[in-house]
Every structure is written in structure tokens, then in C-alpha cells.
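Two proteins follow. First one:
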Amino acid sequence: MARMSDPSGPASPPPGPILIVGNSYPPHTLGGYELLCRDHVAWLRARGHPVTVLTSTYGVQPKRTHIETGAHGEHVVRALDFHWRDFKIERPTGFELIAGERRQRLALEHVVTQDRPRAVELWHMAALSKSLIAVLARYRLPTIAVVGENWPTWDVQTDNWLRLMRHGPRRDQLLRPGVRSFVAHTIAPAEMNGAFERVRPAYCSEFLKKDVESRFAPWRGRGVTVHNGIDLATMSRERDPSEPLGRPLRLLYCGRVERRKGVATAVEAMSLLKKQGIDATLDIVGWRDEAFAAELRALAASTGVAGAVQWLEPRARESLPDLYRAHDVLVFPAIWEEPFGLVPLEAMATGCIVVGSGTGGSAEVMIDGKTALLHERENAGSLADRIAELTRDPGLVATLRTGARAMADEHDIETYHRALASLLEEAARA
């Protein structure tokens, strides 16, 4: 299906309470996905919708229910188990698995019966129990999934509860209808029974849509693409397209510091820029995998650029526009297939030039020579050469800033919210 980008859609989803389900929620977050969810909740609340957010206990005491009121008046229930720790998936087994499935089913059923949502939005569901989706299907609630990563292609098959029901040691007994009914009502649904088919997915990029639908049969041909948006009123900063680059050249990496983000490529490129006689600094800003960060520090030291690489703590969203504005170039050297990438769009809105690998869905906004410069994946020499081009060609700098600003303007957050609202309305009618 075509990308949903028409801002003339409905200003509000179907009337009534909305339930949001996801693996984390501010202030306890892992990245931009959760912040975008919070922005959408704020948009819903501004239009008078009661919103309940059911999320995991990430950031608080696990296996206990924590209830609070969010920043925008939303009802936040932290009760789900997040099967993730320190960049690794840790699936529960045995009694812990059974007890967890029952506890989470009861938590979801309590929210549904108490708050009576009219529609549901699934956000980041990776490393959460997938039986929750089957519970929602029982209530026949209109449901969409806001898909920002390819979790359906790997996380469903590796869900331990569903695997136990399919391949458990007493599979023949579990297949009996009476047994499965008993399990479903005392612990959690024992099978999905078309639950995924009741969900309408909205993907953050056309690349992600094709990837998921080619490998996850229940959603094949069912989804739409809704590109992520940014709050232009907040993120924009004025910068003349012809403004000279700084001396030294100010480079920025902003995002999670983990291996698949390609930060090592940026650190290696610093030494190559030095060999070309280009004076540059690199600020690394974001939440870190400390073990990987130690490798990067050692790499910087061994290549003689440790003094030019500065490590900064994660920044609040509100401070990011000034951070981008204070730099000349954002490096985005992802080595995995990036689903989309909000950071390049945010940088584009401030005149900070983007140089990156353009993997996956990020290529849908990073157009080589027009809105960004692209380099070969995991190739520090290629990254350094593209950055060096900027120092030699002021005209290229102006062209990229102008094109990037136009691209950012096409992805206003209001368009994004309205597209999701339109999908909820369609789901309710269906």
C-alpha cells in the first residue's frame, strides 16, 4: 500500500479511550522510538482522549505493578516483563515463564476492563510476551501496530511461551482443545488464532514494510508506510546555507552507542581526516553500551585521535536542536539495516549536514548529493573522503543544507499523528 502522508486526514482517532502497549515509556527509554510514542500520547491527550499506557517495568522494580500519571495526564501502568538486559535478549523459562505470562495477562485484562479502551496502538513490542496480542484479540479491539523495527521477523518465533505451546515436552497433551482452553484461561493464550491478522501495521519506512511483510506471513500485504515525523517548531534552527564550516570541523554522532550503529567507523575516519590535514573534532552523544564504548576509546587512543574525541552524556530532546546547530556535520554510519532514523531528519532541520551509510529505511530521506552524502558501509576511508569533500566545496555545502531543510519540512510531526489517527479510524470501522 502507499505511504500515508496526507495531512488532511482526521484530526482525531475514534472517540473514546486509547490504549498504548509497548516495551518502554518515558522517562525510562532506550531511544527515539519511545520518545515518539510519548509525543503521540501528548497529541492524543491534547484532543481530549483518555490514554492508558501499559508498558514494562524497565527502569523500575521488576515483577511489581507501578501506576503513575504521565506528563500529559496519561494513565501509565508499568507491569510487563521486558526480556532484554544490557543489549541481550534474556527469555524466561520454567516457572518464571508461566508465572510471568499469567501476571501479564491479568495486568492487561485489568486495564482493558477498567479503562475500557475503544482502540489500541501497539508500539515497540520486541522482547515482550506475544500472548498479549492474543489477549487483545479476544476483546475484538481495533488495533494498529506502529512498527519501528523488524521485531515480527525474529521475536515471534523466539517467544518462549509460544514455543512451549508449539514444541513443548508434552505437545500432544497441550494440543487437546480442553487443555489449551484451560491453559488460556488460567495462564495465557496458548496460540495466536489469527491475532496478528487482526492488527493493522504501520511501518516507519517502505524498506521496513517490505522486509517485514516478506518474512512475516500474517502481515503480508496488510501494512502501510507512515514515515516518522519531527516537531519542526521545536527542532528547527536557522542557518544560512552558505555559512562556512567551522575550524576545526565539528563532527557529531548522536544516538545509542552500540556496535550496529557503526560508531567505530566514525572514530577510524577521524585518524584518516587527520592524515589529510583536516582538523576535526568528534562529539559522541548518547546512551552507551559501556563495553563497546571501552573498545572505541581504545581505538581512538591507538589511532592518535583520543584528544579530538569527546564523550558526552545523553541529552534531553529539548536540547538537541542547539546541539545539532553547534556542529557542522552529523555522522550516521550505521552498519545494520537502519529502519528509518529520526536523528538525520532532526539534524537536517538545523542545517547540520548529514554524512552516513544510508542503510535500510534511512535512504528514503538521505539522498546522496541532495540531502546528504553517502559513504560505503563500514568503510572509514569512504566516510573520511565524503567529509573532506565538504571542506573543498562550499557550493556543495549550500546545496545539501537547502535540500535537507526541504526534506525535513516534508516530515512534520502533525502529518505523522494524523496518519496514525486515520489508521485507527479505519480499524474501528472495519
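Second one, unrelated to the first:
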Amino acid sequence: MDPITKQLSVIENETFRALGYTIGGMMIFPGNKIDRKMTINGARGFNRSIADRMDLTLECIRRHYIGDTAQKNPLGHVISRYADFFALFGDFDGYVKFFLLDDLLTGAGGVNFFMSFDDFRAPAVPRDVETYREYRSRSMAFITARNHRIEQLFS
């Protein structure tokens, strides 16, 4: 990403980084290792199909809840190890509502991706400045909206 982010101003990069470190840019996953295997957070960071993106992670979680084993799910095996955690929320809607992720969904209940989505076939990281700007803009819009949701909840 360095060759791409170097084409943006220091202020643009710092604004994105700072917003990502607000509460709206954070997510909680179980931290306990099961069978000494990677946690969800570790797997989403190391998996090249996810690249630590919340939108792609949420799509994997959505697929887990609908029991969709026919489609590719890069985090399916990891999420399945934590099935008890995901059962706490009942269903995908319960998970989204609990973590205030509503603004990451389309009106039809699918995931509103930060970049074009091709069933995990396209690269998870932007390959050019234009795509990065789109990714950055959509990410920032989601984090800002989630920060507002969190603020409203505690106001």
C-alpha cells in the first residue's frame, strides 16, 4: 500500500488513520485460541482475501449465519470454531444490531462493500490510487456513521 498512500497528502493519510482508531473503527472478537489455532482477529489480518477489512469480515460472518457452505468463505473455518460466540446473537441481524454495524449493510441486508466485490476473487487491497480513494471514502463514511450511532446510544 505504501506506493499508493505516498501519492496522498500527509493530512489525507493521517485523517484516515486517526478516524480508524476511533471507537467506530474498532471491533471486538473473542481473543481465546481454540485448539491453539489462530483467532478471528488474527485470521482476518493474515488472510489475503480479507486483509483486515471489516466489510469482507462481515460478509464472512453473514455467510456463517445463513449456513452458506456452497459459497467461498475465507474465514469459514475460523468462524466455525467460535460458533458459540456467534450463537449469542441469534442471527446475522442480531449480530449487526448488537455491534451497531447497520451502516455497513445495503437496504436489502447484504454487505455494503468498500470496493467492488467479486466473491473474494478480486484483491482485498486497492491496486491503484483511484480504488484506494474509493475504499478510503467508503470506510470513512462507515466509521463516521458508526461513531454517530455509538454516540447516540450513550447520549
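SUMMARY FIELD: The helical segments are 2-5, 10-20, 40-46, 54-65, 76-81, 83-87, 92-98, 129-153. The CA atoms of residues 24 and 147 lie 5 Å apart.
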